[in-house]
Recover the amino acids of this structure.
């Protein structure tokens, strides 16, 4: 009766050790997360990890792992109450990748599958579904990354990774201008509408003229303001192409980066074995 | 236009990245030189970048291709800030758009090549070509139109090269045709948009590099309108034929049989076409015929 206990101890020992160590690590991670208010992973490590994982997804030859990554992303978004935003942003990649399945299934391959009046190709469907899985997995990762990382953190990380300073400066100015550009565009559009612009009766030419005049006016107005603000920034000591303000990575962040890298290599290994 | 992550194969990801990085490097060199002499160039550049970012994020999914259609904005940007600087700002715009699941991180190289390099330089070339023989609004509009269409043709080629390497030409045609229903109206919208915007902002402070151009004559307007109309009719008819299940082989043999039933297959015309290829052959015929008609147009009109 106690044969399971008395014969081979190896499996029992392994499961006991892994279970209890995992309990300790789990508790430690939870405590750390509570202390860091949700910032468990350093943004620099997180962005590198996502980038490497997306590259590894494009290298995967089977759809199982990308779909698994997507499912994990869904669970994380549910857990962090961002599922509504996540699913809204995912609609577009899903539609695009669905078209890929359709066109590849209808045109690419040798072995035919006759389904009612439609003839599909097995190879095309298989390839199309692989692309579908890759696209939604990669898009899921990007959406989750942005939901947890601010634009400033991303830009600062790029600076730390030695992306040319001019590109960083243009990026940070661009992201600010884009927001105020949209805000101002709405204001001007409203003002134009109140002065009988954007009439429903106007044709394509008039509508295009309205949109273009708003854009032109915005560019000119924004350019004047941007130049004044930029001169003010320069006069207050702001320097173009300044170095990264982020310090060196901590040992635990490096360790986490190493663990993530190993995880990606293992995932690729599993994909090759399948 | 933006290709998502996971669609392109790794070798194509690296190739498009390598080409785009080269152009971005050149663009950064030019920008840095200009910033040294004129510091306010940086906010101006960023502002145009923000315009490109906002314009190109308004996308429509495209059936068949697995990509999207949207105005590109890069031809307009290239007229205002120059083509190399436009490459840099389009790469940054694509980077930001990747975070809203529009495009992707691994495909920034490919998307920069189609939108930031092909669309920009194609549009800018057309602008420079037409600038001195037509009004400013027309040359800017044509730059928008050409840049937009070129961007989509390159995207279709990128998709065909990566997804269907064995049948590139067939899938290039298929993906290009897939873009037509959404992209052709958008390209015309981009013509009007670019033309109006450039006309609006030309001559104002800081925009002195945009010249006023020359007025366009009636003959050129008629010729261009005829050209665009005929191309539209051919494109729509071909697309309708494609949807109707046509094999898209053309009617060369029928025309030859009816027009010249006794013609020798070893004749000089056939030999020449076989040697240089049909597209180049037809281009030569078009150029010769067009030059001849244009040159003697006034005399022909007088005689008639």
């Amino acid at each position: 009766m106690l044969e399971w206990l008395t014969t081979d101890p190896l499996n029992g020992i392994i499961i006991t050790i892994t279970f209890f160590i995992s309990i300790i690590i789990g508790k430690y991670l939870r405590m750390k997360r509570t202390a860091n208010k949700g910032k468990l992973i350093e943004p620099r490590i997180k962005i590198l990890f996502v980038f490497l994982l997306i590259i590894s997804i494009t290298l995967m030859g089977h759809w199982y792992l990308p779909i698994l990554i997507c499912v994990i992303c869904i669970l994380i978004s549910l857990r962090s109450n961002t599922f509504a935003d996540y699913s809204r942003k995912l609609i577009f990649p899903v539609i695009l990748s669905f078209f890929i399945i359709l066109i590849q299934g209808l045109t690419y391959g040798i072995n035919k599958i006759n389904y009612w009046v439609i003839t599909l190709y097995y190879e095309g469907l298989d390839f199309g579904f692989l692309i579908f899985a890759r696209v939604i997995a990669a898009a899921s990762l990007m959406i989750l990354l942005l939901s947890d990382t601010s634009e400033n953190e991303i830009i600062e990380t790029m600076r730390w990774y030695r992306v040319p300073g001019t590109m960083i400066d243009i990026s940070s100015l661009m992201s600010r201008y884009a927001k105020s550009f949209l805000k101002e565009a709405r204001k001007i559009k409203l003002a134009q509408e109140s002065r009988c612009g954007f009439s429903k009766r106007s044709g394509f030419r008039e509508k295009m003229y309205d949109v273009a005049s708003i854009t032109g006016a915005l560019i000119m107005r924004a350019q004047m303001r941007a130049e004044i603000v930029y001169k003010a920034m320069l006069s207050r000591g702001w320097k173009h192409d300044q170095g990264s303000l982020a310090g060196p990575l901590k040992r635990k962040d490096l360790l986490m980066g190493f663990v993530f890298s190993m995880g990606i290599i293992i995932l690729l290994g599993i994909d090759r074995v399948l | 236009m933006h290709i998502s992550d996971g669609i392109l194969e790794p070798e194509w990801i690296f190739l498009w990245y390598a080409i785009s990085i080269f152009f971005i490097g050149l663009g950064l060199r030019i920008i840095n030189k200009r910033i040294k002499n004129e510091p306010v160039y940086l906010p101006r550049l960023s502002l145009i970048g923000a315009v490109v970012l906002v314009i190109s994020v308004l996308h429509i999914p495209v059936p068949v291709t697995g990509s999207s259609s949207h105005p590109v904005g890069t031809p307009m940007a290239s007229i205002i800030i120059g083509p190399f600087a436009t490459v840099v700002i389009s790469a940054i715009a694509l980077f930001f758009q990747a975070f809203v699941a529009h495009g992707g991180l691994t495909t920034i190289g490919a998307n920069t090549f189609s939108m930031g390099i092909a669309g920009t330089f194609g549009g800018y070339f057309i602008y420079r070509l037409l600038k001195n023989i037509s009004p400013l609004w027309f040359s800017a509009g044509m730059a928008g139109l050409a840049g937009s269409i070129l961007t989509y043709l390159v995207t279709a080629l990128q998709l065909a090269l990566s997804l269907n390497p064995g049948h590139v030409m067939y899938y290039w045609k298929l993906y290009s045709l897939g873009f037509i229903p959404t992209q052709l109206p958008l390209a015309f919208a981009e013509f009007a948009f670019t033309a109006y915007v450039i006309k609006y902002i030309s001559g104002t402070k800081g925009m002195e590099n945009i010249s006023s151009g020359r007025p366009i004559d009636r003959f050129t307007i008629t010729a261009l309108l005829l050209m665009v109309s005929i191309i539209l009719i051919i494109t729509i008819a071909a697309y309708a034929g494609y949807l109707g299940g046509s094999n898209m082989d053309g009617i060369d043999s029928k025309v030859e049989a009816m027009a010249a039933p006794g013609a020798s297959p070893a004749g000089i015309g056939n030999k020449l076409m076989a040697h240089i290829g049909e597209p180049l052959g037809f281009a030569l015929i078009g150029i010769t015929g067009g030059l001849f008609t244009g040159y003697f147009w006034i005399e022909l009109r007088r005689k008639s």
About this structure: Chain A touches chain B through 72 residues (CB under 8 Å). The CA atoms of residues 185 and 215 of chain A lie 8 Å apart. The radius of gyration of chain A is 26 Å. The first strand of chain A starts at residue 112 and ends at 115.
